Amino acid sequence: MTTPIIDRISSLLEPVTASLGLDLEEVELLGKDERRRLLVAVDRDGGVGIDQVAEATRAISAVLDESDVMGEGRYTLEVASRGVDRPLVEPRHWRRNAGRLVAVELTDGERFEARIGSSDDSGVELSISGDTTRFPYDEIVKAVVQIELNRKDV
Q1: Phi/psi zone of residue 81: left (φ > 0), alpha (ψ -120 to 50 degrees), beta?
Q2: What region holds the Ribosome maturation factor RimP N-terminal domain (predicted)?
Q3: Is residue 62 classed as helix, strand or coil in its secondary structure?
Q4: Do 17 and 41 lie in a common domain?
Q5: Which of 32, 46, 56, 109 lies 20 to 30 angstroms, CA to CA, from 17?
Q6: Residues 76 and 127 in one domain
Q7: pLDDT value, residue 153
Q8: Contacts by residues 25-29 (CB-CB < 8 Å, ≥ 24 positions apart)
């Protein structure tokens, strides 16, 4: 659930990130008064490197400084990549993680791990023990990429 301030910040930052070839994935405002932290998550096909994060940080900071959206109080701006621990909620998240292992929970309560196959705007193919099944996104309650330290190419 977003708040009016998050909606305003997102609307302000969306064109900035888009002009850099980045998707604005998430905006969070944490803390109060002088300890506020504005967290901005960005991503793109092929991933986001340190140079893209630095460029985005400079551009976002400049736009925020020119606007009144954050008010007069101090805050800390943190710009980072989306991160692997975030749930897959958009078709682009599935596409960008093709081949990765994912923990899935379906609307019927079933839970399993599967390998992500091809995906499009309506659903994704998941390989479970070698069998591939297509799932529409509206049947998936939650999905999070699993970290594989010693992954064997499948």
Answers
A1: beta
A2: 12-85
A3: helix
A4: yes
A5: 32
A6: no
A7: 60
A8: 25/82, 25/86, 26/82, 26/86, 29/3, 29/5
Q: How far apart are CA 152 and CA 135, in angstroms?
A: 25
Q: Is the pTM of this model over 0.85?
A: no
Buried b (16+ CB within 10 A) or exposed e, 39-70: ebbbbbeeebeeebbeebbebbeebbeeeeeb
21-75 pLDDT, tens digit each: 999 999 999 998 888 999 999 999 989 999 999 999 999 999 999 999 999 889 9
**Res. 152: pLDDT tops 70:** no
Domain count, the chain: 2
Instruction: Report the alpha-carbon distance of residue 124 to residue 121 in Å, rounded.
Output: 9
Sheet-wide strand order for 23-30:
23-30, 36-43, 75-81
CATH number, domain containing residue 45:
3.30.300.70
Q: Which of 87, 84, 70 is nearest to 31 (CA)?
A: 70
Residue span of the structural domain in which 107 resides: 91-145
For position 149, what pLDDT does the model report? 86
pLDDT score of 108 more than 70: yes
d(CA 23, CA 1): 19
Rounded to an integer, the average pLDDT of 107-129 is 97
